[in-house]
Amino acid sequence: MAIASPTADSASTRSWWSAGLPRNVFAIGVVSLLTDISGEMIVPVLPVFLTATLGAPPAAVGLIEGVAESTAAVLRIFSGWFSDRIGRRKQLVVAGYCFSNLVKPLLALSTAWPQVLAIRFSDRFGKGIRGAPRDALIADSVEAAERGKAFGFHQSMDTAGAAIGPLVAAAILAVTMNNARAVFWFTSVPCIATIIGAIWLVKDRPMVPKHGQLPRLGFSGLGRSFALFTGISVLFAVGNSSDAFLILRAQNVGMAVAAIPLAYFGFNALYALLSTPAGMLSDRVGRRPLMILSYVIFAAVYVGFAVAGNALTVGALFLLYSVYYAASEGVAKALVTDLVPAESRATALGTYAAATAIALLPASVIAGGLWQAVGPWAPFAFGSALAGLAAVLLGVVPMRPVVAH
Predict the structure, then answer these.
(1) Which of the listed CATH numbers 1.10.260.40, 1.10.150.530, 3.10.120.10, 1.20.1250.20 matches domain 19-204?
(2) Which of 121, 224, 276, 372 has its CA 20 to 30 A from that of 210?
(3) Percentage of the chain with pLDDT > 90?
(4) Among candidate residues 13, 32, 31, 33, the one with its CA nearest the CA of residue 23
(5) Contact (Cβ atoms closer than 8 angstroms) between residue 287 and residue 335
(6) Interatomic CA distance for residues 140 and 27, integer angstroms
(7) Is the pLDDT assigned to residue 323 strictly greater than 60?
(8) Residue 193 dihedral angles phi and psi, to the nearest 5°
(9) Cα four-point dihedral sign 37, 281, 141, 88
(10) Please, which pLDDT band fits residue 186 given cuts at 50, 70 and 90?
(11) What's the pTM value of the predicted model, to 2 decimals?
(12) Domain 217-405, CATH 3.40.50.150 — does that match?
């Protein structure tokens, strides 16, 4: 067990430029923005680079991404637990950002796909190390009444980076005659800025361990309410297949290939704009109502994708889909921190993230099987049904937040 230092930064540490949030939360948001710019610059370029430039088979592309994301998911559990155990966040946060951002530019030197596998593994290794301690540090830096706003702001910055990155990559490709290696080299600019920001701007909020009562791995020390919320979230995640199926469905109903990146950019832009207001709303009306609303919106969107018959409808659904994300991603993290003691925040956040991420593998396998065996509408009908069930369970299953701390 641990006793936290005072959670909220004083008013003197807040300025207009920090959006009325503690400077620590603002700094973490900026670091995440820069990291996502560099990361999302790579995403649209890497599959083509692997297959066209390095001659990798499609199976290798799937292997690389599967190994990378699984690594990040599993490590979140252990990094969160270790952060709570030592009573420190920043060391793991900085190590994770350094690990990821030092290896990304090395993609430019790759000559074979196993090298890319090693680099992507290292990148996601860094993500797995930093994720839970970073989210716990956000919660440590604010009072309970501002957690939704803090996590919403972080999600806004994170998503803004996801929207900007592909645009920067497209500009570099246009200038360099589609030179993917130039994109990889250019990631060094936001990568270096990320490392500097993590080291110099992010401040730790140490926890003082209390002898003999240290956090444990697993659900046993995190409480019944946390276990119930995680179980409902995993159920929902089994129906939440990869967004790649949304893109395939867009093509299936006739959306032009050139229009799909524009629809995805619109999705990310609106997601970024709405995340902070959604988090602030959860501070006022509660986390669970927002989470229930997000599941209902998801169910409606998936019904729409199941019955969509034209590209215009799909474009509108992408925008509505961004509302689901804005009302769920940051709010879910805030709810997790509401349900567990301060000394177990990182452990809980890592466990929750890992459980829901692992569920995405069977979700995508089920979706692919339904698409092939039944039809393109089937995975969306399945996902909508599970989202509806999760919304009902979240509304009726009793959960008790820990007294504000």
Answers:
(1) 1.20.1250.20
(2) 224
(3) 51
(4) 13
(5) yes
(6) 14
(7) yes
(8) -60, -35
(9) negative
(10) very high
(11) 0.83
(12) no
